[in-house]
Amino acid sequence: MSDGSFQPGQRVRVRESYPPGHIRTPFYIRGKVGHVTRALGEFKNPERLGVGLDGTPKKTLYEVRFKQADVWPNYNGPVHDTVDIDIYQHWLEKA
Amino acid sequence: MADKHTHEHQQGHGIGGFFRKLFGGGQHDHGHEHDHKHEAHGHAHHAAAAHDHGHAHEAHGHEHHDHGHGHGDHGHDHPHPHPHTAREFQPDEKVHGYYQLLGLALKELLIEKQVFTAEEIRKAIADRDAVTPAMGARVVARAWVDPAFKARLLRDAHAACNEVGVDAGPTNLIAVENTDTVHNVVVCTLCSCYPRTILGLPPSWYKSREYRARIVREPRAVLKEFGTTIPEYMEVRVHDSTADMRYLVVPARPAGTEGMSEEALAALVNRDSMIGVALADSPAKH
After folding, report:
1. What count of Cα atoms within 13 Å lies in the side-chain half-sphere of residue A9?
2. A26/B190 touch (CB, cutoff 8 Å), yes or no
3. How far is Cα B187 from Cα B192, in angstroms, rounded to an integer?
4. Chain A within 8 Å of B219 (Cβ-Cβ)?
5. How far apart are CA B194 and CA B136, in angstroms?
6. pTM
7. Contacts of residue A81 in chain B, CB cutoff 8 Å?
8. Residues of chain A neighbouring B189 (CB-CB closer than 8 A)
9. Across the A/B interface, how many CB contacts are shorter than 8 Å?
10. Where is B205: in which H helix or E strand?
11. Is a pLDDT exceeding 90 seen at residue B18?
12. How far apart are the first and last CA of chain B?
């Protein structure tokens, strides 16, 4: 989509970036590929709230599902195990 | 000792004391010094006595429940031939850290500036403590007996909770359902996000680094340690509540509960089953 939004089912990669600050994207998921399960709405951007700003512009939050086998090397469990993580749009790119 | 005692009391009142502690040279003592006459009675008694002194614990009051007051673990039942010196003292809590002191100082300032009163703070803590997992259990029990309600709960948890008189407050709540094929479990790897408005305060293990690190890395092993074995054919789905949403697990309805009342069913819904580290209780246990 040209506005950068994502649809349920779409494959996405979490940006592999390590800026300083109040980031709500866990380290362990950066650079990993999953798929969007749903859009959760627009929320104030914690990275701006975290430094005393008002959190605007708001960011769309997505629930993104990853296969554990894609997240952890040598994951000790069946291939169908998953982890769902809430990630803001600006941390996602098409995969 | 006498000097110290006086010193403490001079510093111990008002904002100035906390600010001096914060910024004025690392005075760690927090008023235990005058308790020494109790110590001959042993550690356990001392620990209890120290608690009763209430040296401005209120500011972190609600965290207290998570400490697990295991005074019995000190092993104070051992025969007591060795002498306890008058100064021997084993604090049962850590001394206040930087942010606790900062919080206390801020609290005192805001009270002094009449932004709010100590009574209002006490009330706010009491209100938080009044939220118990029973509220979540009521929601789950309704979902078990009413499929249409369950559908609404999974679609819009906040509105559905209101239907059974449970106010999730400002929480953006999502309910996720355990089924024959999916077992959900919740964590916040970044901090300790938890659906506090309907489950109350999180257990201390939920906030521990060990749980937070391991439940995403090896969920099945951690679940086993909670006594919960999920068959290989099922999907274990971990929810890392990293952002604005909070998650409530709707555990699977146990077998043998047909015909039970909603109230009796709610009694089977333990807290841990709504986090996802346990299953709902079997009616045989009740």
Report:
1. 0
2. yes
3. 8
4. yes
5. 12
6. 0.75
7. 219-220, 235-237
8. 26, 28
9. 71
10. helix B204-207
11. no
12. 56
